[in-house]
Amino acid sequence: MGKISIIGILLLLCLSVPVFAQKKTAPNPVITADSLVTGNYKDVLNNFFQLAFENLAGPNKEIKFTGSPFAVMAKLDTTLLVDTIYRHYAGLRNLNYAVGLKLDTNYRFNGFSSTIKYAIINRRDETVSKTFLGMVVNDTLVKQLTMLNLLISANISNIGAPGSAEQNAAMLEYTDFRKGIKDFGELSKATKDTILAVLNRNDSTKRLYDYLKGNDQFNMKKTADSIYRDFRENFNRNLLWTAGVTDTTYKDQFIFSNVVFSSDLVKGLNKYSRAKNELELNIHSQLQLVDDTLKAGHDLKRAVFNFEPGVNLAFKTKYSKKSYLEIKFSGAWYHNFSYLYVNEERDRIMANATVRLRVFNDIWIPIEIKYDPKNGNLFGFVNVRANFKALAGAAKQIRF
Q1: Which of 292, 385, 15, 307 is nearest to 181 (CA)?
Q2: How far apart, in whole angstroms, are the C-alpha atoms of residue 266 and residue 124?
Q3: Alpha carbon 74 to chain centroid distance?
Q4: Cα torsion angle, 279, 280, 281, 283, sign
Q5: Distant-in-sequence, close-in-space partners of 81: CB < 8 Å, separation ≥ 6
Q6: 43: phi then psi, degrees, rounded to nearest 5
Q7: Hey, what CATH class is 37-126+241-395 in?
Q8: CA of 65: how far to CAs of 49, 60, 68, 91, 99, in Å?
Q9: Cα angle vertex 219, ends 238, 14, to 5°?
Q10: Which region is the signal sequence (predicted)?
């Protein structure tokens, strides 16, 4: 049994809801987890597919497709999304590739681009993480709910005669309590007294006893769901660090016009806070090798380094926890290691802002603004990014 199933059992053991008995198929947890990450995260590492239209209003446009080898495999065989199989493909899921088509101002072909990127550190994958599993298992309330479920059956057997209608009714009533059909206050006095007696006899469950004694609105399923949701939301703010290489060719021949070595780091800053919105640290750096256009032939002898630290604020909906608007502020330092052209500066400082608007569930419109404070120049770029899975419908049929 895989880790996703173990987490589900630990949190929902008290609910006693067999998967095969559900009338409505539960969403695939792999798909659900992907839908909750920020648009900024998807631009750093995409779990499935992304189609991007870059710099639509500028002279150097690009149409770029980003994918993951695992996503292609899952498209061909959706059983790979079953947790017992899915967890074995961490390496392929942490790998992204991209191919792009460069266009000029008149939308004419201007070269190809390709990218390979890998997540060196990815501590956000709660679906297979031993750390995430340990956090859930060791949660105090999870332990108490599990203990209650293990002890209650023996105590309910003391209600009435064995096999009596009274005993069967108590067991059915407790089952409804586990499933969340009934709140604690809706139970009969005999069942409530039995639950409280079980909790009060064990030191490890005293906290739950004190809570239930004064809270008739306690719902076991909602509580279990809330525990998992809180852990998942905070775990998705852990460290992600990727490294990649991108190359671009000339339009008339398959020779590199530039090569970029890049690194991206994303880390949540308000982990375990009660804030609804998410604050992320995003540090981007790259070394770009470009062709020296003043010399005959083609070479990559000009080197420019870029370091861009920033903070991304994601505004999220109250219940689904999906971000609908993101604003990122960053500063960028450019350093030219090569000889300078006329009027070219060795170092440049830029102030940047990116506004990402989620217009549909998987379609974002990022608007990038770059400002050169020394020369007073302002640049704007409009992009469109569509993140799609192409297998969500089939994945919903995969049961965990």
Answers
A1: 15
A2: 10
A3: 18
A4: negative
A5: 28, 30, 31, 74, 391, 395, 398
A6: -75, -20
A7: mainly beta
A8: 7, 17, 10, 20, 6
A9: 75
A10: 1-21
> Residue 309's pLDDT is what?
97
For residue 139, how far is the Cα from the chain centroid? 22
Specify the pLDDT at position 252.
Answer: 75
- The H-or-E segment that residue 233 falls in is helix 220-235
Q: Which two tokens stand for residue 319?
A: 């219940």
pLDDT at 312: 94
Closest of 234, 245, 244 to residue 269, by C-alpha: 234
Question: What is the DSSP annotation of 166-205?
Answer: HHHHHHHHHHHHHHTSS-GGGS-HHHHHHHHHHHHT-GGG
Other Cβ atoms less than 10 A from the Cβ of 189: the count is 7
* Alpha carbons 363 and 392: distance in angstroms, whole number: 15
Q: Are 308 and 324 in contact (CB under 8 A)?
A: no
One-letter amino acid of 322 = K
Strands 377-382 and 347-360, bridge-based pairing: unpaired
Residue length, the chain? 400
Structural contact between residues 87 and 6, judged by C-beta atoms closer than 8 angstroms: no
Q: What pTM did the predictor assign?
A: 0.69
Domain ranges in the chain are 1-26+127-235, 37-126+241-395
Alpha carbon of 316 to those of 86, 116, 278, 313, 326: distances in Å?
28, 30, 7, 10, 9
β-bridge pairing 278-290 and 302-316: antiparallel
* Integer Cα distance of 42 and 119 in angstroms: 12
Tokens coding 118: 């890998």
Cα(94)–Cα(120) distance, rounded to whole angstroms? 8
At 345, list the tokens: 């500066």
How far apart CA 265 and CA 44 sit, in angstroms, is 8
CA 156 – CA 170 distance, rounded (Å): 7
Q: Which residue has the higher pLDDT, 203 or 366?
A: 366
Residue type, 105: T
How confident is the model over 21-46, as pLDDT tens digits? 333 444 444 444 455 567 787 788 87
More confident residue, 131 or 345: 345
- Quick check: 68 and 92 in contact, CB under 8 A? yes
> pLDDT by residue (tens digit) across 379-393?
887 888 887 654 444
